[in-house]
Amino acid sequence: MNSRPSHSTEKQNIPVRRLVVLPFRKSLEISFQSIRVRFFRSVITTMSLVLAVSFLSFIRVGNDIANGFLAAEDPGLRQALIRSGYDLAPEDTRADTSPKQRWLVFLSLLVCVVGIINAQLMAVTERFREIGTMKCLGALDRFVLRLFLLEAGMQGLAGAGIGALAGGIFALINSLIRFGSVTLTHMSAGDFFASVLLSTGVGCLLSLIGVLYPAMVAARMQPVEAMRAEQ
């Protein structure tokens, strides 16, 4: 007697495609729309990053200007730097960041990261139902994690870019007020843009670090718990 495989056995042999992977462009679009919907909250979250990166850029560009003065080997410019507060020994050929400035930069960046973590945790709380809906529709943990990282990356790039450029410009204006037009003749454009780009990179990195833990919390959330959360 010939036995034919049952219908259930045939189904088991057929590979089931139950994972739908959205393209990166679609994830980027969803993240951008989320920022637009929460624009003012995003601006408030980004402001701490703008201020911290602006301070970092201000210090770096200020040192670049001072190093340009020292490279000219003009005693008058060296004395002008000393009078303006730079602690320079007679043999110094570069102006380094003082320990006090390093601590101030470190503390400002630390406060910035803590603020980003706090704001992102609040954002996760407000988006319980949204996260639960995505999970119920089949969104994987890595998809939710990707959305939060993309949002943080876009906010970080915008905030850090604005802060770095503003800090560099303020440093130039401050130097022009203190030293006059000699600033423009001894300031290297390459050093200026290098400091601005470095400050922007640091800001983007801080933004991603600050959102990492909240993003992992959101990604590991169970759909049922998220949907039952009260808004």
From TrEMBL:
InterPro entries: ABC3_permease_C, Macrolide_Exporter_MacB. GO terms for cellular component: plasma membrane. The keyword Cell membrane applies. One of its GO terms (molecular function) is transmembrane transporter activity. It is found in: Cell membrane. The keyword DNA damage does not apply. It is a multi-pass membrane protein. Residues 105-223 form the ABC3 transporter permease C-terminal domain. Keywords: Cell membrane, Membrane, Transmembrane, Transmembrane helix. The chain crosses the membrane at residues 39-59, 103-124, 145-172, 192-213. Pfam families: FtsX (PF02687). Belongs to the ABC-4 integral membrane protein family. This is ABC transporter permease. The lineage of its organism: Bacteria, Pseudomonadati, Thermodesulfobacteriota, Desulfobacteria, Desulfobacterales.
